[in-house]
Design a protein that fits this description.
50% helix; 8 strands; 13% strand; alpha/beta; 12 helices
Length: 304
């Protein structure tokens, strides 16, 4: 049943008619637990609250299913507006984005122009931008673009996914760039030809790449809600004397808040991924696919 539910939610995440319907009805059916709101003001309010709790943030203006250059330019403008709002509020937050929302599937040069405009604005504020990894079909091009941008900017990072067979080699390939990486298990539905189909294998590879990247001496954002993985990362940094300035834990807005608070009290840097915007549906479906138990929470709160 869990596998069927996961497959259903992953399919819905890519469904454009469902996304349009969700936009019409707004953040209902429990999505507000995982999405900070539809406006930048609501997102900044969430950031300030998290900052008061001792957590830093990465904001993501949600945007999927971009089909025109105008939509890509509008999405890039929202990213810049987000950086402006962070600076104005003096909030402790950087920016995460998806390159498909900036026009990657429409025109690569358009995407690069948008990326450079965003990185220039971030650099003017002394801020940092993280490129989110998407499905496998975008993996190589995302890494190619990251390499190109890394030659010009030192305020950009990328995400790598433990469920892909290729990730260990990608970390080795990016080592010379001293890449700032967010390491995740992965949330997209992929073929067994490119991704580990079994959770236990994904977990083992996640441990492997955490250790690999930390021992390379590069900055690691360990993004997980799995307490076993958190404890593993803590054991690696303790065993090898890795300073807390070289890594952080990252978790999603609205998930495992007790664990977030505990890590803050233990003196670890904890960054919360806070999404906002009207294009929340695909993101929300992927969160349900990752952990179908979230569905029960939503059902209970819906009837309340």
């Amino acid at each position: 049943m869990e596998v069927l539910m996961r497959n259903m939610f992953q399919s819905l995440a890519k469904n454009q008619p469902a996304n349009k319907l969700a936009k019409r009805y707004g953040l209902r059916l429990g999505a507000a637990r995982f999405v900070a709101g539809e406006s930048i003001n609501m997102a900044i309010d969430a950031v300030k609250k998290l900052n008061k709790e001792g957590k830093v943030v990465t904001l993501d203006h949600l945007g999927e299913f971009i089909s025109t250059e105008a939509e890509a330019v509008e999405s890039a403008a929202m990213c810049i507006q987000t950086l402006d709002a962070i600076a104005e509020a003096k909030a402790e937050s950087n920016l995460s984005l998806k390159m498909t929302s900036l026009g990657l599937d429409i025109n690569r040069e358009l995407c690069m122009k948008n990326m450079r405009n965003i990185l220039d604005r971030a650099k003017s504020y002394g801020n940092f931008v993280r490129i989110d990894m998407e499905d496998y079909g975008h993996c190589q091009e995302s890494i190619n673009i990251y390499k190109e941008l890394r030659q010009e900017y030192d305020n950009v990072g990328i995400v790598l996914q433990a469920y892909l067979y290729r990730t260990e080699a990608d970390i080795a390939d990016l080592n010379d760039l001293h890449a700032n990486l967010r390491l995740v298990k992965g949330a997209y539905k992929e073929s067994p030809s490119v991704a580990f189909p079994e959770k236990k294998d994904v977990d083992e590879n996640f441990k492997k790449i955490i250790k690999q990247h930390l021992l390379n001496g590069n900055y690691a954002a360990v993004a997980t809600h799995d307490e076993a993985m958190v404890e593993y990362a803590k054991s690696v940094v303790e065993e090898y004397g890795i300073h807390k300035d070289q890594f952080e834990f990252q978790m999603l807005y609205g998930i495992c808040e007790d664990l977030q608070d505990r890590l803050v009290k233990e003196g670890y840097k904890v960054r919360i991924y806070v999404p906002y915007g009207i294009d929340w549906f695909g993101y929300f479906m992927r969160r349900l696919a990752e952990r179908p138990a979230n569905v029960w929470f939503i059902v209970k709160n819906f009837f309340k």
